[in-house]
Amino acid sequence: MSFAELLASFIGRTVEVYFTSNPPIIGTLASVDDCIFTVQINNTYYYSPPVIVTIVADQIDFVRVVA
Prior knowledge:
By secondary structure, this protein is mainly beta. The protein contains one helix and five strands; from the N terminus they run αβββββ. It has a five-stranded antiparallel β-sheet. Strand 1 (14-18) and strand 2 (25-32) form a beta hairpin. It is globular. The model has no long low-confidence stretch (mean pLDDT 90).
């Protein structure tokens, strides 16, 4: 089982994506492809809609699935 296949089983769940030099991204896992995945995060502005962030799998340290 590849990382993408494992991650795809958690679509719709809240995840925390950690990087070496950047703050973590926390949101809902929206989609998974072979080398990229998308996370829907809530924008920090009061009336703004949620934002979809595309993440390249090679750039992350680990992903934590929040139960």
